[in-house]
């Protein structure tokens, strides 16, 4: 399966992802193809909509103390629902769909979710730290929301300006 990361301002990132109802080979193939893309692009989280599949599926692999992301730490989360959230935390976020831009974003410090695994089994997970932040970031993608949507008006303006400039530079590089 050939997958490519969809980048802002592509409108496909604004779709609302559909519930997964069939936990079949198609789903497994998609999840299997998402993992190497995330790892090879230095990602820690990736939602299916970011590779042009608007379904409620996401993967996460939070680096350990040594910065490693062993395959056994991979989390595959289907149809997640936040059932508890508490506290507040700020973290400098980035996104594979918004390359080379990072900004402080406020999230809940802890979340508890219910979700399904790749075989449709119901699971529950309590998260804090970077995992809790990543879950909230990836779940926003399922609603068509990007972290840049959470910036103040002034910071969003600054982003649009910087991002346009960056895109021009990247285009120039590609054609040279
Ligand atoms: C979402 O983000 C996230 O700009 C996952 O050039 C972010 O994996 C969760 C990345 C922060 C929690 C905290 C971004 C890679 C990766 C870039 C990512 C880039 C290369 C972002
Ligand atoms: Co993202």
The string of secondary-structure elements, in order, is HEEEEEEEHH
Ligands bound here?
2-phenylethyl (2E)-3-(3,4-dihydroxyphenyl)prop-2-enoate, cobalt (II) ion
Strand order of the largest sheet: 1-2-3-6-7
Say which CATH homologous superfamily is assigned. Answer: Peptide deformylase
- Count of spatially separate domains: 1
CATH domain fold name: Peptide Deformylase
Largest sheet: 5 strands, antiparallel
Strand content: 15-25%
What is the end-to-end distance? 29 Å
Give an overview of the whole structure.
The chain is of the alpha+beta class and 176 residues long. The chain is built from three helices and seven strands. The strands form two sheets. It has a five-stranded antiparallel β-sheet with strand order 1-2-3-6-7. Strands 4-5 form a two-stranded antiparallel sheet. The chain starts with 24 loop residues before the first helix and ends with a helix. Bound molecules: 2-phenylethyl (2E)-3-(3,4-dihydroxyphenyl)prop-2-enoate and cobalt (II) ion. The site of cobalt (II) ion has 4 residues, from helix 2.
């Amino acid at each position: 399966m050939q997958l490519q990361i969809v980048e802002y301002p592509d409108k496909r990132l604004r779709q609302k992802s559909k519930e997964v109802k069939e936990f079949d080979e198609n789903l497994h193939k998609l999840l299997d193809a998402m993992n190497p893309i995330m790892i090879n692009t230095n990602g820690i989280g990736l939602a299916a909509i970011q590779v042009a599949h608007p379904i409620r599926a996401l993967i996460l692999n939070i680096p350990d103390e040594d910065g490693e992301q062993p395959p056994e730490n991979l989390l595959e989360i289907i149809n997640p629902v936040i059932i508890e959230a508490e506290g507040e935390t700020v973290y400098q976020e980035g996104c594979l769909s918004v390359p080379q831009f990072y900004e402080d974003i406020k999230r809940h410090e802890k979340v508890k979710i219910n979700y399904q695994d790749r075989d449709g089994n119901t699971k529950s997970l309590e998260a804090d730290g970077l995992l809790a932040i990543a879950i909230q970031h990836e779940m926003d993608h399922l609603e068509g929301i990007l972290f840049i949507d959470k910036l103040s008006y002034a910071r969003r303006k600054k982003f649009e300006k910087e991002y346009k400039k960056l895109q021009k530079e990247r285009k120039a590089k590609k054609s040279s």
